[in-house]
């Protein structure tokens, strides 16, 4: 499945257990010798009363706490399964309430976290605007980065031209920057107007992807904190657009976007790994 080109291999482990090692997840995600995807998702039964639980493996085999586009895909499957318009998906980053919105999926992403320890960062900085030093790189956006947790860590940079920003070199440098003990996702955001943001993303453990749901949420929240957008904004990504709503403060973030089922099949995990 995919959400705006951010693609996933999903395994349903609710009836028959599926145990994946990090090495197997990495092999599955390989676009040359595996199936190929940005993340591998395992759908499990929830022990917390949710309709399902999902585990998220990045392309490098490491596990992530949250993934908005994948959550929409899982929610779409479960809603269609049970002929319902509302489900709750449990994740490591917390439960996500998902609803059908005229064929799209809206997710309550919870409240953003701005405390430096919660993101986490290695030191106490003003997460609305702080300096990130990258050796050999001089970019105004690095002088005023923002950090936020949407169940996973994000570093948001506001750039003048996202197309000319060296995402492929700057992304991995910031992902593994010493400021971020758990590494971080990196968003490069160009504010088009008060209702539209243009974003490119470097995902932690995966690299450049056409879209990132939690990244779009982080971009909108960081922009609103600085007064660069209102309480509802369209975030334009390489793969398409997401609509993000946030009233500020302790209010919840709502993300709305599409999903697509590409195909169903089987794979011999032992042979693949």
What does this structure look like?
The chain is an alpha+beta fold and 273 residues long. It has two domains: 2-110 and 258-264, Diaminopimelate Epimerase, Chain A, domain 1, CATH 3.10.310.10; 140-252, Diaminopimelate Epimerase, Chain A, domain 1 (Roll). The protein is 18% helix and 34% strand. It is built from five helices and 16 strands. It has a 16-stranded mixed beta sheet that branches. Strand 4 and strand 5 (63-64) form a beta hairpin.
Features:
single chain, 273 residues, alpha+beta, 16-stranded mixed sheet
Q: Could you give the order of the helices and strands? A: EEHEEEHEEEEEHEEEHEEEH
Q: What is the annotated CATH architecture of the largest domain?
A: Roll
SS-based class: alpha+beta
Number of strands: 16
Helix content: 10-25%
Mean pLDDT level: 96
The residue ranges in which pLDDT falls below 50 over 5 or more consecutive positions are none
Distance between the termini: 22 Å
Number of domain modules: 2
Output the number of helix runs: 5
> At the first level of CATH, what is the class of the largest domain?
Alpha Beta
Q: What coarse outline follows from CA principal-axis ratios?
A: globular
**CATH topology heading of the largest domain:** Diaminopimelate Epimerase, Chain A, domain 1
CATH superfamily of the largest domain: Diaminopimelate Epimerase, Chain A, domain 1
Specify Rg, calculated over alpha carbons.
18 Å
Largest β sheet strand count, sense and barrel closure: 16 strands, mixed
